[in-house]
Write a structure and sequence with these properties.
This protein is of the alpha+beta class. The protein contains 9 helices and 15 strands.
C-alpha cells in the first residue's frame, strides 16, 4: 500500500480544499472512461479513490498520521468501526458531467439530468398583440432516433449489461458523513441498466437526434410583453421510454415606430400646424385599427396630451380596451415664402412679440416623426 499523500501528490498538511482539488484532477486523468485502452487505469483510479477517502475523513486521517497504514487508518478494511469505504462507481460522481453518455448528449446541447423542457421566444408586432394572432413557431427539439428506436445501438446489435450498476440502472453511494447510503441513476448507462456496444450511426449512440418542429401558437388579444404560454409535451424527448418535456413560449412584442405601450393604453404623437393649434381643428391620427380623427381644441399648446377613449389595447381581465394618448406637437415649416414671412412678422407684432432677424434654416437630414406618420398613412 502506497502512502495516500504520495498517491494524491499533496503535503501532509494539505487542507480539505487542496485534497479535493488534487483528487479531482487525478480522477479526471486516470478514470477508466477516459482511458479505455489502458488496462491499468482501473487500478490507478481505485488507488486514487481510496487515498482520498482515507484523507478526507478526519478520524481515518488522524489515525494514519499517528500509526501509519497498520494502525486502522489505512485502505479498505481499516475504517474505524468496520465501515466500508466510499466507492466511486461513476465518472459523474467525480466531476461535473455524466460520463461518456453525457459527453455525447452535451454535443446536442442537452444533459442527461434534463427533463427535456425547452424555452423559446415568439416575437409579434404591437398590432398583432392588440388584435390577437395565430402564428407559426419553428424550433429544434430532441426526439427519439427513428433508426435505432431510441436504444442508441446499431440495428441488429445487442446491448450489454452495464458494469457500473450491474444492470440495476442505479448506483449506491456511501458518503463518509452520512449514516445511510444514497442511490442515484447510474451515469454510465444513464439509468438504463444496459450500455451500447455498437452505437447507432445517426444518433452516435445517444438514442436521440435533433429535429425541427413547427407549431401554431395562438396569441390572445391584449397579450403583454414577456407573457408565457406552456405547451405540454412540446419539449425534447431525451429517452425513448419517457415522454417529452414541456415547451415554454415567451411572447416578445417588437418596438413600434409610432406607438408606445403604457399598460393598456398606447401613446403616440401627432403634428399639427400652428394655425390648427391656435384656431382648433379636427386632425387625422394613427390608431392600432388604422386611421382615426381627434379634435384639437383652440389654443392647444405643444406637449398637450389628448385622450381618445377605447383605442388602446384590449384588457385581458376586465374586458374593454384602454385609451390612446395623443401628444400634440406643433409643426413649424422649415421654409417660408416671402409673403408667409411677412404675415408671420405681422402676427408677431399684433401679439406684441419681438420680430427676430431672418435666419436661414439649417439643412437637416434626420428622418423625423412627421415622416413616420406619412409612412403610416401611406403618403
Amino acid at each position: 500500500m502506497r502512502d495516500p499523500y504520495e498517491v494524491l501528490g499533496v503535503a501532509r498538511g494539505a487542507t480539505d480544499d487542496e485534497l479535493k482539488s488534487a483528487f479531482r484532477k487525478l480522477a479526471a486523468k486516470h478514470h477508466p472512461d477516459r482511458n479505455p485502452d489502458d488496462p491499468g487505469a482501473q487500478e490507478r483510479f481505485k488507488e486514487i479513490n481510496a487515498a482520498y477517502q482515507l484523507l478526507s475523513d478526519p478520524q481515518r486521517r488522524a489515525a494514519f498520521d499517528r500509526f501509519g497504514a497498520g494502525g486502522g487508518g489505512g485502505f479498505p478494511g481499516g475504517f474505524p468501526g468496520g465501515g466500508a469505504p466510499f466507492d466511486f462507481q461513476n465518472f459523474a460522481d467525480v466531476l461535473p458531467g455524466d460520463g461518456l453518455f453525457g459527453d455525447l448528449l452535451e454535443k446536442l446541447g442537452l444533459k442527461t439530468g434534463d427533463r427535456g423542457d425547452l424555452q423559446r421566444e415568439l416575437t409579434v408586432t404591437l398590432e398583432e398583440a392588440s388584435a390577437g394572432v395565430d402564428k407559426e413557431l419553428t424550433y429544434d427539439r430532441a426526439e427519439a432516433c427513428s433508426t435505432c428506436a431510441g436504444s442508441g445501438a446499431k440495428p441488429g446489435s445487442e446491448l450489454r449489461t452495464c458494469a457500473g450498476c450491474n444492470g440495476r440502472g442505479k448506483v449506491r453511494l456511501q458518503q463518509p458523513l452520512l449514516p445511510i447510503p444514497i442511490e442515484r441513476p447510474c451515469s454510465r448507462c444513464a439509468g438504463r441498466g444496459r450500455v451500447v456496444v455498437t452505437p447507432c450511426g445517426p444518433c452516435r449512440g445517444t438514442g436521440v437526434i435533433t429535429k425541427k418542429r413547427t407549431i401554431i401558437v395562438t396569441v390572445p388579444p391584449g397579450v403583454e410583453h414577456g407573457a408565457t404560454r406552456l405547451v405540454e409535451r412540446g419539449g425534447s424527448a431525451l429517452r425513448a421510454d419517457r415522454g417529452p418535456g414541456d415547451l415554454e413560449i415567451v411572447i416578445k412584442i417588437a418596438p413600434h415606430e409610432v406607438f408606445k405601450r403604457l399598460g393598456d393604453d398606447v401613446v403616440c404623437q401627432v403634428a399639427v400646424s400652428f394655425a390648427d393649434a391656435c384656431l382648433g381643428a379636427e386632425v387625422s391620427v394613427p390608431t392600432l385599427d388604422g386611421s382615426g380623427r381627434v379634435r384639437v381644441p383652440r389654443g392647444t399648446q405643444p406637449g398637450t396630451i389628448l385622450r381618445v377613449r377605447g383605442k388602446g389595447m384590449p384588457r385581458r381581465v376586465v374586458g374593454g380596451r384602454g385609451d390612446q394618448l395623443v401628444e400634440v406637437q406643433v409643426f413649424v415649416p422649415k421654409r417660408l415664402t416671402p409673403r408667409a414671412e411677412e404675415l408671420v412678422a405681422e402676427l408677431a407684432k399684433e401679439l406684441g412679440q419681438h420680430v427676430p432677424a431672418r435666419v436661414e434654416p439649417e439643412h437637416q437630414t434626420d428622418r423625423g416623426f412627421l415622416d413616420k406618420l406619412k409612412d403610416f398613412f401611406g403618403g
